[in-house]
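Chapter summary example.
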Amino acid sequence: MKKTIIAIMTVALAFVSCTKGFEDMNRNPNQLSEANPEYLLNTSVYQTLKASCGAIKKNLLDNYVQYCYGQTNQMGRYGDIPTTNSEYFRAFYNYALLPLQFIEDDYSDNEEYVNRVAIARIWKYYVFSQVTSIWGPIPMSGALKGTTSVPYDDEPTIYNALLEGLKECAEAIDLDGDRFLHDPVFAGEDGKSNLNRWVKFANSLRLRLAVRICNADRELAMSHISDLMEDESLLMESNADNCTVKWGDNEATRNYYYDYFIVQTTNLDKANSAGECFLMYTAPYKDPRLEKFFTKCTSSQMPADFHWAPYWGKPKTDHTPVSGMLDSSNPHAGIPATAYSVMLDSYFAANYTQMILSYAEVCLLKAELAHLGLGSGTESVSDYYYDGIRASMQQFGVTDEDAIRNYLNVDGIDFDTLTDLEVSEEGERYFMDYLGLCSSAIKDDGTDAIYTQIIMQQYIALFNQAIDAWTLLRRSQALDIVPHYQPELGYGAVNAGSSDVEFSYLPMRLKYPSSELQDNAEETAKAQQLLAGGADAMDTPLWWAKPQRINKNLKDLVDNYNKQ
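The structure predicted for these 564 residues follows.
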């Protein structure tokens, strides 16, 4: 990984194409030689959107977390393409992170830029938190310094630096001090930085990361949680504090998905169908947010009297793990992606507003930490839980109070209740995928039912935040996520199955990109030894992740097949 002349030139060119939030930065290109912090922050924020919500989201992460899918290429089938990973890696380092490093290098010693440097560092820590959640050990402390050999930090070192750095930045911001004139993330009415919201974002991000690592370093997690929960007013307090970033309005800065689905109309069948697995966690519980996510299915190809109508979701594939599983014909065989419920057009708007971190997530993180005994605040576990659901409803535009109230009273949704398996004559089958292998039912089966409820609501609240949802699923392993029944077998996929019984569980990370294996080979080889078992593989769990959840129904299917 090199800070190359090409990368620097690309960042500079990005300045003159950014639009509002990014357009207002176009006013004085002559200031590029001064590394103008206004241009640099806006460029970094836009490039962060491209890196995290562009090709990586379409090709991999929407498919991984099963909000929507239809992508059937090698990576969508849980395979690995090292050269493509290189593009993702460069997008974060060369384009999203490098401008922030320029701000730190040029303005850290300038007393007139104290707040602006702190803001740049907060955003840098956010980007690094996303990068390490994808690959694990990454270059951080030695990155972006222009050297050709860059060491990797192990995950404990990274998370300690992120947590301490966010704390330091939040405390460093002077609410009466300097501001960015055109803040692309937290702009006040005058367009300048809302410093109070930057403080809340830094603290709320620190809470997210502290809860993330509680399985790996409980003591470190609790020390930061305890500090944060002493004054909850310094965390997000309502949806008005949500961290969002809006794509631009011109061809250079608009929503990646606008170009992919609206401009390139031949791509409509690729990745916007409602995911059957996500519907499994929402439709049988009559979640009123569904109409804010997907269209109602009107296709005649939907099975008659389908139990989740008017919503119908597409599975990853119509393939089954073993032949002869279905009693009758496969209801998904040959069905085009456009025949299902599909994501609303609003998600493909050119200037779509992307959620980065929400008040709903903060509430549900508080519910989680309180339930796990990691700390306490001013409310009970159940109150934080209900606050989170209500905040999510408001965030997505659900205004029908009766619908919200009815949802909160549903067994399995109402706090500390189990799913009513007799609500339908189908029994638990009503809450399962079409193969009857995975279930969204909250059951008294030896698992922590309350924890499952909290994680389920986080999963729903994180809709369209694919990296964050993938991290949630890996760190909690609380939800029964449908495996892939037609995985890529030859390119590093998570091969839990065999040639006769094909399936792959959720990938735990991406492999290191070919660019690092070639250009930073010695340090990347060292980094591999920092991974569990020293394996640079997609099924290698990251430091904070729980072991892969095993699907009992699928295990029994495999065991019975092997006995034949």
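To summarize the output: The radius of gyration is 23 Å.
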